[in-house]
Amino acid sequence: MTLLTEDEITAGLGRTAGWERSGDEITCTRTLGDFRDAVVYVGAVAHLAQAAGHHPDIAISWNKVTLTLSTHSAGGLTAADFALAEQINALP
Q: Staple partner for 57: which of 26, 68, 74, 77, CB 3.0–4.6 Å?
């Protein structure tokens, strides 16, 4: 995987509403109805991640789910991070 340039990262963030950059990662937090809804949402994210072969760091705090994407093997952000972020954004 090739690391993205600053311009490519900026463009990727423009396509992925709700995601913010933090150094070599992008992060989003979703607020769901309750803990059950949060776990169901994480299950849907896990399905997408497994299919993509690219797995986010996930934190659950009752009804909030925080997802963090970075391509650790490449040492930063790659196209895979933004592709998965776009798929996650398409979840209901």
A: 68
